[in-house]
Amino acid sequence: MSIRAISVHEVAQKLIRKEPMFILDVRNTDQFQDWKIEGAGIQHLNVPYFDLLDGVEEILEQLPPEEIVVVCAKEGSSIMVAELLSEQGRRAAYMEGGMKAWSEHLVPLKVGDLRHGGELYQFVRLGKGCLSYMAVSGGEAVVVDATRMIHVYTDFARNLNVNITHVVDTHLHADHISGGRAIAQETGAEYWLPAEDAQDVAFAYEKLGHGTEIKLGSGEVSIKALYSPGHTIGSTSLVIDDQYLFSGDILFIDSIGRPDLAGEAGSWAMDLRETLYKRYRDLAEQLIVLPSHFMIMDELNEDGTVAKKLGELFLENHGLNLEKEAFVTMVSQNLPPQPNAYQDIRNTNMGKMSPDHEAQREMEIGPNRCAVR
Amino acid sequence: MMEQAHGKLDAKGLACPMPIVKTKKAMKDMEQGQILEIQVTDQGALGDMTAWAKSGGHELMKHTEENGVLTFWIRKG
After folding, report:
1. Are A50 and B47 a contacting pair at CB < 8 A?
2. Residues spanned by CATH 3.40.250.10 within chain A?
3. Of residues B43, B51, B56, nearest to A28 (C-beta)
4. Theoretical Cys-Cys bridge with A82: which of A90, A92, A316, B25, CB 3.0 to 4.6 Å?
């Protein structure tokens, strides 16, 4: 029996449709426990490939008769193990590109239409829980919180026959490398960044501040900036077409942002409180919140998008329903570990270092840990 | 002063899983207590070599990293 290659695209589609899938993850146990492919239909078995060099006979009983998707860090070991399974008469596939490719894969999904003409798309990075956006109107597009896989956005815009005219980062990211500046360079678009987060950056940018308004196409669709510090001192939310709220890393579906990535947990906790309990309270509850991250697959809607009305989050999100003291404790103590290489990622996003492609991949390996629940 | 390695393995330029496959094979020909020195360039080998040595009952005595080359010293258990 021959083995088949399964693309990260196919794995992502199965995952969103909650189809059953059995994954044999052959990375070492530490790596597996730190970060893996997760979803409602997924069953896992983790056996490091180096325990299978003499054959897979010992684990056959633990495997279902259905197709087994073998996953490793890059691909090589998963091919070897899939072949061993195949020799034993099992149906086996290996995931092309391994977890490195999984980390980089983006799924574009349409969130909805814009009232004043145009569409809004969300790019779901399943492997890291990052969300980025493209709003399109009148032949122009704005990209928000782009990942470093910039050609996903530029190709997408080309297929829609629109020009990317604005690129926005809601804050200086510490969990992933921004593609914002690179997209702007390639397309000639304006690159917007909150000035408070950009004090040390080594490049020119447009200052995104409270009240900044960006218009698309003929000008009917506007994006208004709302200063909302707390995750970083410059964190800025965007309201687009009076319909959607890009909440950046301030508010998620089932959790809220963490204020400590730059080592400022104490002083930023009150900023975060003010943003979530005052500034956001003044907004229309009908706004649909579009965050820049999700933490667990349960935060995805049926169609795979991550979006929910602000009014519902006020009722359901634990982090929006705490007394002041409990809130400060939650956001400044017992925080989850910081993302891998977060300092290097910050420096890259500030233009202070320019790691090559492979180094950028390595820096981003692992889960995302921006939120507190 | 560290003990002299009894054997050396050059696995530079090889991608996963080959560094571990070759290390395992080389270890088979050695005697308990002897030390194998392994050089690899696959950066993923750091975590894997550590985990493999542990699961096989070997001792990873130390490792160094220089110009992208990882060198491991493993004592056969």
Report:
1. no
2. 4-102
3. B51
4. A92
How many structural domains comprise chain B? 1
What is the spatial distance between Cα A121 and Cα A132, in angstroms, rounded to a whole number?
A: 9
Q: Point out the residue among A50, A76, A362 whose CB comes nearest to the CB of B52.
A: A50
Our answer to whether residue B10 is catalytic in this structure is: no
Q: Chain B: nearest CA to A345, how far in angstroms?
A: 19
Residue type, A205: Y
**Cα–Cα dist A266/A258, whole Å:** 11
Contact B51 A362 (CB under 8 A): no
What is the biggest distance separating any 2 CA atoms in chain B, rounded to whole angstroms? 32
B23 close to B11: Cβ distance less than 8 angstroms: yes
A49 contacts on B by Cβ (under 8 Å)? 16-17, 20
Which is the CATH superfamily of the domain at A4-102? Answer: Rhodanese-like domain (3.40.250.10)
Residues A81-91 have a mean pLDDT of 96
On whether any CB of chain A is under 8 Å from the CB of B17, the answer is yes
> Which of A25, A28, A32, A53 would you mutate first to test chain B, the one with the most B CBs within 10 A?
A28
- For A211, counting Cβ atoms within 10 Å of its Cβ (0-12 exposed, 13-18 middle, 19+ buried), the class is exposed
Sequence-separated (6 or more) residues with CB below 8 Å from residue A151: none
- Residue A154 DSSP class: H
Interface pTM, i.e. ipTM: 0.91
Using alpha carbons, select from A219, A231, A224, A175 the residue that is nearest to residue A349.
Answer: A175
Distance (Å, whole) CA A4 – CA A358: 26
- Tell me the per-residue pLDDT of A12-31, one tens digit each, with 9 for 90 and over: 999 999 999 999 999 999 99
**How many CB atoms sit inside 10 A of residue A223's CB?**
22
Mean pLDDT of A1-9: 93
Please report whether residue B71 resides in a domain.
Answer: yes
Q: What class does CATH assign to A106-372?
A: alpha beta
Q: Is residue B2 part of a domain?
A: no
% of residues, chain A, pLDDT over 70: 95
The answer to whether the beta carbons of residues A135 and A156 sit under 8 Å apart is no
CATH of the domain at B51: 3.30.110.40
